[in-house]
Specification:
Length: 204
């Protein structure tokens, strides 16, 4: 994950989807990803990894999660209400007990933070949660529990089978608080009205 990663991607990585959004189509036959929008963090010949950005984790908010992960003691949870704007998401079916933070590039931890695309980074250590608890974290962030992973060639196959569409990412699609609207917004970014997509595929 050294500095030359970006350059290597540009040379050899044409066709790879790092920094793009995946949008599940009605043809997606895995219920776990129905109507999901995924930010692709890494995609290469070795496989792919991404974070679902539009499925809120039920019944848990950011301060409660910090207590569960032993980042802060329970009595301090009240003091973190300023960060209740941080959305806790179901990031995918892999490693669901682990937190992954997608965030703006104004925060960086040497050897822990992975720059993905213009202005977007991924950090998966407790240090970023501690910083966020103190109010020292990134300006924009979402916390995902788990991630979506694909074996080599698997994502490409699913795209060929019309399981996914893809579009460029933007901050609103990643960090926007209205998770319920992200799927429709992503489709409209491609010029597709959500109702048209489902009827095209013969899916009510």
């Amino acid at each position: 994950m050294k500095m030359s990663r970006k350059a290597l991607q540009k040379k050899a990585g044409r066709g790879y989807l790092d920094g793009q959004m995946l949008i599940a189509t009605p043809s997606m036959n895995d219920d776990r990803f129905s109507r999901s929008v995924i930010y692709v963090c890494a995609h290469s010949s070795e496989g792919a990894m991404g974070i679902v950005v539009n499925q809120p984790a039920s019944n848990i908010n950011f301060p409660d999660l910090l207590v569960q992960l032993d980042v802060i003691p329970e009595e301090e949870a009240v003091d973190v209400t300023s960060r209740e704007d941080v959305t806790v998401l179901k990031g995918g079916p892999v490693e669901t007990g682990r937190g992954f933070v997608l965030h703006s590039a104004d925060f960086f931890i040497e050897n822990s933070t992975l720059p993905i695309d213009e202005g977007i980074c991924l950090t998966a250590t407790l240090d970023i949660l501690k910083a966020m608890a103190k109010g020292d974290g990134p300006a924009n962030a979402i916390l995902a529990l788990g991630y979506a992973g694909w074996a080599p060639g698997q994502l490409e196959s699913e795209i060929q089978e019309n399981g996914w569409l893809h579009c460029p990412a933007d901050a609103e699609l990643i960090f926007g608080a209205d998770t319920g609207q992200k799927y429709d917004k992503a489709l409209r970014k491609l010029g597709i009205e959500p109702g048209m997509l489902s009827s095209d595929v013969g899916h009510a």
